[in-house]
Amino acid sequence: MITLQNIFLQYASNAGQVNALRDVSLNVAAGESVAIVGPSGSGKTSLLTLMGGLEKPTAGDITVDGVNISALSEDALAQFRRGRIGIVFQSFHLIPTMTALENVAVSLELMGDANAFEKAQQELYKVGLAQRITHYPAQLSGGEQQRVALARALVAAPRVILADEPTGNLDSETGRQVTDMLFALQRERQATLILVTHDEVLAARCDRTLRLKDGQLS
Ligand code: ADP
Ligand code: MG
Protein backbone atom coordinates (compact mmCIF):
# COMPACT_ATOMS: atom_id res chain seq x y z
CA MET A 1 0.00 0.00 0.00
CA ILE A 2 2.90 2.33 0.82
CA THR A 3 6.39 2.00 -0.61
CA LEU A 4 9.29 4.37 0.01
CA GLN A 5 12.49 3.86 -1.94
CA ASN A 6 15.69 5.61 -0.95
CA ILE A 7 13.91 8.70 0.32
CA PHE A 8 15.87 11.82 1.20
CA LEU A 9 14.27 15.00 2.53
CA GLN A 10 16.21 18.21 3.04
CA TYR A 11 14.91 21.50 4.41
CA ALA A 12 16.67 24.78 3.80
CA SER A 13 16.76 26.82 7.01
CA ASN A 14 18.56 29.90 8.32
CA ALA A 15 20.96 27.64 10.15
CA GLY A 16 21.74 25.83 6.89
CA GLN A 17 20.49 22.66 5.33
CA VAL A 18 18.68 20.10 7.49
CA ASN A 19 18.71 16.47 6.43
CA ALA A 20 15.35 15.46 7.88
CA LEU A 21 15.30 12.02 6.23
CA ARG A 22 18.29 10.09 4.92
CA ASP A 23 17.91 7.09 2.64
CA VAL A 24 14.67 5.75 4.09
CA SER A 25 13.15 2.69 2.39
CA LEU A 26 10.10 0.82 3.65
CA ASN A 27 7.03 -1.16 2.64
CA VAL A 28 3.67 -1.18 4.37
CA ALA A 29 1.06 -3.75 3.33
CA ALA A 30 -2.64 -2.94 2.89
CA GLY A 31 -4.48 -3.19 6.20
CA GLU A 32 -1.30 -3.16 8.25
CA SER A 33 -0.81 -0.90 11.29
CA VAL A 34 2.71 0.45 11.73
CA ALA A 35 4.01 2.58 14.59
CA ILE A 36 6.81 5.07 14.04
CA VAL A 37 8.76 5.97 17.15
CA GLY A 38 11.87 8.04 17.68
CA PRO A 39 13.18 11.05 19.56
CA SER A 40 11.95 14.57 18.88
CA GLY A 41 13.47 15.87 15.65
CA SER A 42 14.20 12.40 14.28
CA GLY A 43 12.00 12.94 11.21
CA LYS A 44 8.71 11.26 12.22
CA THR A 45 6.42 14.09 11.12
CA SER A 46 8.48 14.56 7.95
CA LEU A 47 7.97 10.90 7.07
CA LEU A 48 4.22 11.12 7.64
CA THR A 49 4.03 14.33 5.61
CA LEU A 50 5.68 12.61 2.66
CA MET A 51 3.38 9.58 2.88
CA GLY A 52 0.37 11.89 2.86
CA GLY A 53 1.58 13.80 -0.18
CA LEU A 54 1.78 17.05 1.81
CA GLU A 55 5.46 17.45 1.02
CA LYS A 56 7.70 16.13 -1.74
CA PRO A 57 10.96 14.26 -1.18
CA THR A 58 14.27 15.77 -2.26
CA ALA A 59 15.14 12.39 -3.77
CA GLY A 60 13.59 8.94 -3.95
CA ASP A 61 10.26 7.43 -4.92
CA ILE A 62 7.03 7.12 -2.96
CA THR A 63 4.13 4.98 -4.08
CA VAL A 64 0.85 5.13 -2.15
CA ASP A 65 -2.18 3.07 -3.15
CA GLY A 66 -0.61 2.35 -6.53
CA VAL A 67 0.19 6.00 -7.34
CA ASN A 68 3.76 7.27 -7.60
CA ILE A 69 3.26 10.52 -5.74
CA SER A 70 6.87 11.73 -5.77
CA ALA A 71 6.43 13.22 -9.23
CA LEU A 72 2.96 14.78 -8.91
CA SER A 73 2.24 18.51 -9.12
CA GLU A 74 0.65 20.32 -6.13
CA ASP A 75 -2.79 20.15 -7.77
CA ALA A 76 -2.42 16.48 -8.59
CA LEU A 77 -1.27 15.81 -5.01
CA ALA A 78 -4.34 17.53 -3.58
CA GLN A 79 -6.51 15.45 -5.90
CA PHE A 80 -4.63 12.30 -4.88
CA ARG A 81 -5.18 12.96 -1.15
CA ARG A 82 -8.89 13.59 -1.44
CA GLY A 83 -10.81 10.62 -0.05
CA ARG A 84 -7.68 8.47 0.00
CA ILE A 85 -5.69 9.78 2.93
CA GLY A 86 -7.07 10.62 6.38
CA ILE A 87 -4.80 12.60 8.69
CA VAL A 88 -5.06 13.11 12.46
CA PHE A 89 -2.79 15.67 14.14
CA GLN A 90 -1.66 16.06 17.72
CA SER A 91 -3.34 19.47 18.03
CA PHE A 92 -6.67 18.52 16.37
CA HIS A 93 -6.59 21.30 13.71
CA LEU A 94 -10.37 21.78 13.69
CA ILE A 95 -11.84 24.89 12.06
CA PRO A 96 -12.99 27.03 15.03
CA THR A 97 -15.86 28.76 13.21
CA MET A 98 -17.46 25.47 12.16
CA THR A 99 -19.57 23.09 14.25
CA ALA A 100 -18.43 19.51 14.79
CA LEU A 101 -20.80 18.42 12.01
CA GLU A 102 -19.49 21.03 9.58
CA ASN A 103 -15.87 20.16 10.38
CA VAL A 104 -16.53 16.53 9.48
CA ALA A 105 -18.70 17.28 6.43
CA VAL A 106 -16.50 19.90 4.78
CA SER A 107 -14.10 17.55 2.96
CA LEU A 108 -17.00 15.51 1.58
CA GLU A 109 -18.72 18.69 0.44
CA LEU A 110 -15.54 19.69 -1.38
CA MET A 111 -15.65 16.33 -3.15
CA GLY A 112 -19.21 17.12 -4.24
CA ASP A 113 -20.81 14.44 -2.06
CA ALA A 114 -24.56 15.14 -1.88
CA ASN A 115 -24.82 13.11 1.36
CA ALA A 116 -21.97 14.91 3.13
CA PHE A 117 -23.99 15.89 6.21
CA GLU A 118 -25.68 12.50 6.66
CA LYS A 119 -22.33 10.74 6.43
CA ALA A 120 -20.73 13.23 8.80
CA GLN A 121 -23.51 12.69 11.32
CA GLN A 122 -23.10 8.90 11.13
CA GLU A 123 -19.36 9.20 11.62
CA LEU A 124 -19.85 11.44 14.68
CA TYR A 125 -22.24 8.81 16.10
CA LYS A 126 -19.52 6.21 15.65
CA VAL A 127 -17.08 8.21 17.76
CA GLY A 128 -19.74 8.69 20.43
CA LEU A 129 -20.50 12.36 19.74
CA ALA A 130 -24.18 12.16 18.78
CA GLN A 131 -24.96 14.76 21.47
CA ARG A 132 -22.26 17.18 20.30
CA ILE A 133 -22.78 17.66 16.59
CA THR A 134 -23.84 21.31 16.78
CA HIS A 135 -21.07 22.27 19.21
CA TYR A 136 -18.09 24.38 18.18
CA PRO A 137 -14.55 23.15 18.90
CA ALA A 138 -14.13 25.63 21.79
CA GLN A 139 -17.19 24.06 23.45
CA LEU A 140 -15.63 20.58 23.36
CA SER A 141 -13.05 18.91 25.59
CA GLY A 142 -9.69 17.89 24.12
CA GLY A 143 -10.78 14.27 23.85
CA GLU A 144 -14.01 15.27 22.14
CA GLN A 145 -12.13 17.53 19.71
CA GLN A 146 -9.82 14.67 18.82
CA ARG A 147 -12.82 12.39 18.25
CA VAL A 148 -14.24 15.02 15.86
CA ALA A 149 -10.85 15.06 14.13
CA LEU A 150 -10.97 11.26 13.93
CA ALA A 151 -14.44 11.39 12.38
CA ARG A 152 -13.22 14.03 9.91
CA ALA A 153 -10.21 11.89 8.94
CA LEU A 154 -12.29 8.75 8.44
CA VAL A 155 -15.59 9.97 7.01
CA ALA A 156 -14.46 9.58 3.40
CA ALA A 157 -13.33 5.98 4.11
CA PRO A 158 -9.66 6.59 3.27
CA ARG A 159 -7.41 3.64 2.42
CA VAL A 160 -4.62 5.18 4.48
CA ILE A 161 -4.84 6.77 7.94
CA LEU A 162 -1.89 8.87 9.11
CA ALA A 163 -1.85 9.85 12.79
CA ASP A 164 0.84 12.16 14.19
CA GLU A 165 1.02 11.75 18.00
CA PRO A 166 -2.80 11.77 18.19
CA THR A 167 -2.77 11.33 21.98
CA GLY A 168 0.06 13.81 22.62
CA ASN A 169 -2.29 16.51 23.98
CA LEU A 170 -4.60 14.17 25.93
CA ASP A 171 -4.48 12.63 29.39
CA SER A 172 -3.78 8.91 29.39
CA GLU A 173 -7.37 7.72 29.93
CA THR A 174 -8.76 10.00 27.21
CA GLY A 175 -5.86 9.03 24.97
CA ARG A 176 -6.76 5.38 25.41
CA GLN A 177 -10.39 6.01 24.45
CA VAL A 178 -9.33 7.87 21.31
CA THR A 179 -6.86 5.16 20.27
CA ASP A 180 -9.41 2.41 20.95
CA MET A 181 -11.68 4.18 18.47
CA LEU A 182 -8.87 4.71 16.01
CA PHE A 183 -7.96 1.00 15.96
CA ALA A 184 -11.63 -0.09 15.84
CA LEU A 185 -12.39 2.17 12.87
CA GLN A 186 -9.18 1.13 11.11
CA ARG A 187 -10.13 -2.54 11.46
CA GLU A 188 -13.70 -1.97 10.39
CA ARG A 189 -12.53 -0.20 7.21
CA GLN A 190 -9.49 -2.44 6.73
CA ALA A 191 -7.49 0.73 6.28
CA THR A 192 -3.71 1.00 6.54
CA LEU A 193 -2.58 2.90 9.64
CA ILE A 194 0.68 4.74 10.23
CA LEU A 195 0.86 5.96 13.82
CA VAL A 196 3.57 8.27 15.10
CA THR A 197 3.89 8.08 18.88
CA HIS A 198 6.21 8.50 21.84
CA ASP A 199 4.22 5.91 23.74
CA GLU A 200 5.75 2.41 23.56
CA VAL A 201 2.54 0.85 24.95
CA LEU A 202 0.58 2.43 22.12
CA ALA A 203 3.23 1.43 19.56
CA ALA A 204 2.98 -2.18 20.77
CA ARG A 205 -0.69 -2.23 19.75
CA CYS A 206 0.38 -1.85 16.11
CA ASP A 207 1.40 -4.82 13.94
CA ARG A 208 4.99 -3.59 13.99
CA THR A 209 7.19 -0.67 14.97
CA LEU A 210 9.69 1.30 12.89
CA ARG A 211 12.36 3.28 14.72
CA LEU A 212 13.74 6.57 13.41
CA LYS A 213 16.89 8.25 14.60
CA ASP A 214 18.52 11.27 12.96
CA GLY A 215 16.41 10.78 9.86
CA GLN A 216 17.30 7.12 9.40
CA LEU A 217 15.47 3.89 10.14
CA SER A 218 17.29 1.52 12.44
P1 ADP B 1 9.85 14.76 14.61
O1 ADP B 1 8.44 14.75 14.12
O2 ADP B 1 10.43 13.39 14.76
O3 ADP B 1 9.99 15.54 15.87
P2 ADP B 1 10.37 16.38 12.25
O4 ADP B 1 10.08 15.52 11.09
O5 ADP B 1 9.34 17.38 12.63
O6 ADP B 1 10.76 15.47 13.51
O7 ADP B 1 11.72 17.17 11.98
C1 ADP B 1 12.92 16.53 11.53
C2 ADP B 1 14.01 17.57 11.38
O8 ADP B 1 13.68 18.47 10.33
C3 ADP B 1 14.21 18.43 12.62
O9 ADP B 1 15.60 18.70 12.73
C4 ADP B 1 13.43 19.67 12.31
O10 ADP B 1 13.96 20.78 12.99
C5 ADP B 1 13.61 19.80 10.82
N1 ADP B 1 12.45 20.45 10.15
C6 ADP B 1 11.16 20.00 10.16
N2 ADP B 1 10.36 20.80 9.44
C7 ADP B 1 11.16 21.80 8.94
C8 ADP B 1 10.95 22.94 8.11
N3 ADP B 1 9.73 23.22 7.61
N4 ADP B 1 12.02 23.72 7.83
C9 ADP B 1 13.24 23.44 8.31
N5 ADP B 1 13.52 22.38 9.09
C10 ADP B 1 12.50 21.57 9.41
MG1 MG C 1 6.67 15.50 14.94
Keywords:
218 residues; alpha/beta; 7 helices; 10 strands; 33% helix; 28% strand; binds adenosine-5'-diphosphate; binds magnesium ion
Structure overview:
With 218 residues, this protein is an alpha/beta fold. The chain is 33% helix and 28% strand. The chain is built from seven helices and ten strands. A six-stranded mixed sheet has the order 6-7-8-3-9-10. A four-stranded antiparallel sheet has the order 2-1-4-5, covered by helices on one side. Strand 7, helix 6 and strand 8 (192-196) form a beta-alpha-beta unit. The model has no long low-confidence stretch (mean pLDDT 95).
Q: What form results from the Cα inertia axes?
A: globular
Helix-strand topology string? EEEHEEHEHHHEHEHEE
Bound molecules: adenosine-5'-diphosphate, magnesium ion
% residues in beta strands: 25-35%
Terminal Cα separation, in Å? 21 Å
